[in-house]
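Project standup — Tuesday

K.O.: blocked on the structure for the chain from last sprint. Re-posting the sequence here as requested.
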Amino acid sequence: MEQRSSGLQRLVGEMAKFGAVGGAGVLVNLGVFNLVRHVSTLPVVRASIIATVVAIAFNYVGFRYWTYRDRDRSGRTKELTLFLFFSAIGLVIENGVLFLATYGLGWDSPLESNVFKFLGIGIATLFRFWSYRTWVFRAPPAQEAESILAAESRRSPSEPEPRTQRVP
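H.V.: unblocked you, prediction finished:
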C-alpha cells in the first residue's frame, strides 16, 4: 500500500511542478501575445504563434531543469526533437482554437482574443502533459522498475502468475 501512495505522491508532485512551470509559461505566452498585438500590426494568430514559440522555449528550460530534472538525460537531441515535435502539435491545437474564434466566428476584440488564446492553451496543455511525460521526459529505468514491482505487489495472492510462453 505504501508503494502505491508513493507513486501517487510522485505523480501529484510532478503535476504540481508541471503546473508551476506551465503557469509561468502561460503568463509569458499571454504577455508576449498582448505585447506583440499592442506594438505591431501583425494579425492575431501570427502574434499568438510568436508568443507560443517564446513560451515553448521558456517551458523547455523549466521542464528539463526543474520538473523533469530526475529523468533520463542520455539522449538530449532525441529529447529536444520530441519536445519540439509535441510542442508544435500543441501550438497547432492552441492557435487552432484562436484561429476558429477569430476567423470562423469573427471574435477579434482584445478580450475575445485573450479568452480564446487562454482556452487554446488549456486544451493544448492537456495534450502536452500527456505527451511530455510519456514520450519526452521518460522516467529513468529505476522508476519504471519500481512501478512494475509496485504493480506486482498489488496483485492478489489468488491471482495466477502471468504465463510466459517458452520458446525452445
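K.O.: great, moving the ticket to review. The two ends are 38 Å apart (CA to CA). The chain is about 80% helix and 0% strand.
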